[in-house]
Design goal:
The structure holds two protein chains of two kinds. Chain A is α+β, with helices and mostly antiparallel strands. Helices cover 46% and strands 18% of the residues of chain A. Chain A is built from five helices and three strands, in the order H-E-E-E-H-H-H-H. A three-stranded antiparallel beta sheet of chain A has the order 1-2-3. The model of chain A has no long low-confidence stretch (mean pLDDT 94). By secondary structure, chain B is an alpha/beta fold. Chain B has 13 helices and twelve strands. In chain B, helix 1 packs antiparallel against helix 8 and helix 9 runs parallel beside helix 13. Chain B is globular, with a radius of gyration of 21 Å. The two termini of chain B are 31 Å apart. Classes of the chains: A alpha+beta, B alpha/beta. At the A-B interface, helix 1, strand 2, strand 3 and helix 2 of A face helix 10 and helix 12 of B. The complex binds pyridoxal-5'-phosphate (PLP) and FE2/S2 (inorganic) cluster. Pyridoxal-5'-phosphate binds next to helix 3 of chain B.
């Protein structure tokens, strides 16, 4: 039911784990099936995402979309990263079964939540 | 890569003996059992021999056996048929919260049509007590339908005691014995069972064929309307080869039961001991001893079931899970929830179901794969902090 790409990201997840010195951390939950995704970003002074990591409690699609999302935002500016959509993640994975689309929404939300956190922290440190 | 099939509660492999007995009815004997001529009579005698085999396996009379298209059809026939037949006597049905959807969905349909259904709650192991059943019976109760053994956690219900209570109160008693027949002793007379559903593909027979036992004296309307087959109890030309295969499979399953149970119990213990000694923070779902000999079901904390299944599958091991993520409906297993598991713990459940042809080598391989999968997924889990 999953594409080769999904299985690849599931079996060999990219950027898995916490990021040392992360300055933005987001955690989102899926109301639909009760899954949880955590996203860690380390943003440099030029507002570029230097490092990114994820932790996920969820299905194969949730793990693969987390992994793919981190690849898609790594090295990007936070403004670029904010334009990431779940559709783009799904496309990069060469598709997901219809019942699994909601899992990719979690990845988009996790990225946004990590960036939100980064901005909040920056605001507070001003 | 080693291939290990540990999903025998979903379906089993067709046995060589069953296949061989079916072959003549796929290649030579093609008559319609309802036909008058010799072609038809040959097919008819094969069907009637299988009817005896099925009847003998559960302590019934041949004329009490109706062939159906499987467990689902048998369950539907009983529930919809009883409602239609006894609607003037009452409109109350008693069942449990942990039945298969083949029972739950017709019950829900009847609720929409004005029937009242009591879904008995289960204990932490997934069982109901005979006392609960007795307390739920009312003047307008027309049917008690309670599964013999649960398909997810393997818990065996106190069927003989429930049968006794239903007999005492003169209420029809049906049991969905799809997971039990061929695996644990079943006797409809000794256990006071009025109606029983069984399905061939759970005991190494073919798929898409099953039977319904209906005690002599009970008359149910046919769910499928048409010809006069099965003495007007189930229309449609019989699936002769499948019926023959089911007859062979059920006879073998019952004859070998003691032997195969011993084999599976040894394997089951090896698997359970392996899981409990090699993986931390696991919870056995169901009862430690009062369960089907082929069923193993654990919740593995901090991780989700579909991920476990994927890792197993990528390494050749077939299993199943009660996780929301594998259900299609995005709700975790109703059985695990009814047993009081939280969503999170139900999420991490994995079911491994054995057959007698599994080997110790296969169990050890599956344990290795499972242990690795758990380590990988826990390292990824935001809930796991060790
Ligand atoms: C307890 C139970 N009832 C009913 C069924 C349905 O049987 P069948 O697949 O033959 O329709 C199954 C099998 O999935 C089952 O496990
Ligand atoms: S995270 Fe539950 S279905 Fe994908």
């Amino acid at each position: 039911m999953y594409t080769e790409k999904v299985l690849d990201h599931f079996s060999n997840p990219r950027n898995m784990g916490e990021v040392e010195g992360a300055n933005g951390v987001g955690m989102v939950g899926n109301a639909k099936c009760g899954d949880i995704m955590q996203m860690f970003i380390k943003v440099n002074d030029d507002e570029i995402i230097e490092e990114v990591g994820f932790k996920t409690f969820g299905c194969g699609a949730a793990i693969a979309t987390s992994s793919m999302a981190t690849e898609l935002i790594k090295g990007k500016s936070i403004d670029e990263a904010l334009t990431l959509t779940n559709a783009a993640v799904v496309e990069a994975l060469e598709g997901l079964p219809p019942v699994k689309i909601h899992c990719s929404v979690l990845a988009e939300e996790a990225v946004k939540s990590a960036i939100d956190d980064y901005r909040k922290r920056k605001e507070e440190n001003k | 890569m080693m291939k290990v099939y540990l999903d025998n509660a979903a379906t089993t492999a067709l046995s060589k003996e069953a296949l061989e007995s079916m072959m003549p009815y796929l290649t030579q004997v093609h008559g319609n059992p309802s036909s008058f001529h010799s072609f038809g009579r040959n097919a008819r005698s094969a069907v009637e021999k299988a009817r005896e085999q099925v009847a003998n396996a559960i302590g019934a009379l041949p004329e009490e056996i109706i062939f159906t298209g499987g467990g689902t059809e048998s369950d539907n026939t009983v529930i919809m048929g009883t409602a239609q037949r006894l609607k003037d006597r009452g409109n109350h049905i008693i069942t449990t919260a942990v039945e298969h959807h083949a029972v739950l969905h017709p019950c829900e349909e009847l609720e929409k049509r004005g029937f009242e259904v009591t879904y008995l709650e289960v204990d932490e192991f997934g069982a109901v007590s005979p006392e609960q059943v007795e307390a739920a019976i009312k003047d307008n109760t027309i049917l008690v339908t309670i599964m013999f053994a649960n398909n997810e956690v393997g818990t065996i219900m106190p069927i003989a005691q429930i049968g006794e209570i239903c007999r005492k109160h003169n209420v029809w008693f049906h049991t969905d014995a799809v997971q039990a027949v061929g695996h644990v002793p079943v006797n409809v007379k000794e256990m006071n069972i009025d109606m029983l559903s069984l399905s061939a593909h759970k005991f190494h027979g073919p798929k898409g064929i099953g039977a319904l036992y209906v005690k002599k004296g009970i008359r149910l309307p046919s769910l499928i309307m048409g010809g006069a087959q099965e003495k007007n109890r189930r229309a449609g030309t019989e699936n002769v080869a499948a019926i023959v295969g089911m007859g062979t499979a059920i006879e073998l399953a019952v004859a070998n039961m003691e032997n195969s149970t011993q084999k599976m119990l040894t394997l089951r213990d090896r698997l359970m001991n392996g899981i409990e000694s090699r993986i931390s923070e696991v919870k056995l779902n169901g009862h430690r001893t009062n369960r089907l000999p082929n069923n193993v079901n654990y919740s593995i904390k901090y991780i989700e079931g579909e991920g476990i299944l994927l890792h197993l599958d990528l390494n050749g091991v077939a299993a199943s899970s009660g996780s929301a993520c594998t259900s299609g409906s995005l709700d975790p297993s109703h059985v695990l929830l009814a047993m009081g598991l939280t969503h999170e713990v139900a999420h991490g459940s994995v079911r491994l179901t054995l057959s007698e042809s599994n080997t110790e080598e296969e169990i050890d391989y599956a344990l290795n794969v499972l242990e690795k999968a758990v380590t990988t997924l826990r390292a990824m889990s935001p809930l796991y902090n060790k």
